[in-house]
Amino acid sequence: MVMSRPSYTVELPKRISRLNDIAYNLWWTWTNPARMLFKELHPVLWDVVEHNPVLFLHRIERQRLEAKARDEAYLARYDRVVAAFDRMLREDATDMWLGTHKPELVGKTVAYFSAEFGLHRALPIYSGGLGVLAGDHVKEASDMGIPLVGVSLLYRQGYLRQRIDHDGWQHDVPANLDPHAEPTVQVFNDDGTPLHIQVDLHDGTGPLRLAVWRVQVGRVSIYLLDSDVEGNPDWTRQLSSRLYGGDREHRLRQEIVLGIGGVRLLRALGLEPAYWHANEGHAALHMLERVREHVADGASTSDAIAAVRRSTVFTTHTPVPAGHDIFPDEMMDRYFSQYWGGLGVDREEFLALGRADGEPGFNFTALSMRLAAHINGVSEKHGEVSREMWSHLWSGIDGDDEPIDSITNGVHLRTWVSPILRPLYDQYLPSTWREHQEQPQTWQTIENIPDADYWAAHQQVKRALIDEMVERSRRRYAQGQFDAWQVLSSGAFQNVHALTIGFARRFATYKRATLIFHDMDRLARILTNPDNPVQLIFAGKAHPADEGGKRLIQEIYLKARDPRFQGRIAFAEDYEMGLASLLVAGVDVWLNNPRYPLEASGTSGMKASANGVLNCSILDGWWIEGFESDESNGWGIAPSPLDGAAQDEAEANAIYDTLEQQVVPLYYNRDADGTPREWIKRSKKAIRTVAPAFSARRMLIDYLDRMYGPASAGEESAAPRGLVATGD
Ligand SMILES: *Cc1c(COP(=O)(O)O)cnc(C)c1O
Asked: So what CATH class is 94-409+704-712?
């Protein structure tokens, strides 16, 4: 197997030619000196290409490169980055975290399947928190020396880009991802022909051929399957075009490609994973394909299932019904009637694998729960909710507890701590803070940062956020697609001195983005108090098919220009990881008000706390664990026991009370030189308490201890109902 030379590389001056290698490894995204090597070549172009280094090197003028290739100071920095890059790639895992703490796992590869990966804004193959979590998981695995290989799809149109029109309506614009202009390289066979994986959808169109692309994330490779191959029927070439873009049948086909194609891909690459991890039920079919392999090798179906179970980890991510894939029997018949024979089962036994509590349809979460012995939810509360939700699968099976554990999500701190704050962390934390980030004592010296420096740095991030919002709307205005009202809705009057509340996430209904508008008069009084002004910044995309979500965006977008709010509300278009990294560090308060208990975890609030931004959130998901009950690291809103509209009203009022009585007075309580001492105290406490406990490092350690260790050792757990020939 050989890898192609990236097809889009440009010839660089020899002295700085390794910039190409750095551009094709996303390691630079969490390594500030590497990022600066690109940015300082041409800061304006860097923004124009949306921080995509492959495009950047292609577009930049030769003279600039040649000048830098003679600039001694630049070359010294370049040499240091290249040396660190090579060390990172070549370091022996036995000397890294894994080798020193879990030597038995060195050399045991985990295959990690996910329908999306949020790695960087320039590679739009993610839609929200699930994808960003997968990206953070992979980056941390690289940092720790965990041998992980990722599998996903290449979405030629990416996830949608959001354009909002004059009337506040979201338009879904394809991102048109050109893999040649991305940090992705195509995989070829030894003889120079493209590697193609075959999957038969059994729908009469013949086998589908899938091209393979690789994304390098530090030490970890992620392989992306791509159905846009010459010779495939037209409709199949569209198959992997859009993330969550089509109907249910489209989704099923994508999941066949991901799961079944993904296993065949790893085999074709000659990789032998020791254990396997499905990030959400979208990847469930990889388990069936492995059962089929065992049966083809001569195993009985029940032995094959037992073997797959022992080596499989499954993470469920949401209690919201729409988040679980359920396909009608008739559709499963069409795609699998020629497949289940290879599993050694008949139709009835096959469909039983996907049954959930007598409900109609084939449920991929139920399938995953049956075929994985190592199962977890993503926060303590979500573990509890999931055990309740899925208890029927284990009912009547005595002796064993239901084996659904919980591992609370975490965030990759090297990605999410703002580059503006990192120098302060480097100066005041122990120099090895990144290596010991999961330990609370590592963070104690955050207290030693002088308040004035701390506040100045925070104000600088806030200014960077506002600058970016203004620049984005200026560019839209310059393109002639934006009128003055849209400029206003986009936050023309944002002020760095006003208390700023951020709310940014997918516009799923349960997240209740418009809850804060429950009492318009009361909100207007809070925002427009002339002595203590408050501003609100919203961002987020609605799913393309979610009219309800789009209506919520419209409501906010139109309110943002309502004179009653005096310009204190903004809606920032096109939320993605780049805007997210500015928002989670540049606002003062991070607001979250999901309908309890539907927020399985939430991760943006963790990013906020790690930057000293104070959470004001319903006590749901991760915040139940992160919140200090004396409110010393943020504010927790207890969920109301009422239902529906009454619950909304009670919780909205509780949020207003908290803002009026606590948040606003605390923020504007300044000493003689204008520093909000008490606020800063809580802000530092937020970093100190949340960063270690909700770091991706802590999350990966939990996975190694409780999921990966047992899966690599082939441990069993209590088997649920609905398995073939287990005697239940
Ligand atoms: C972190 C992140 C999310 C997840 O946010 P939640 O609050 O967990 O919903 C979604 N989108 C982007 C771009 C993110 O960076």
From this structure: alpha beta
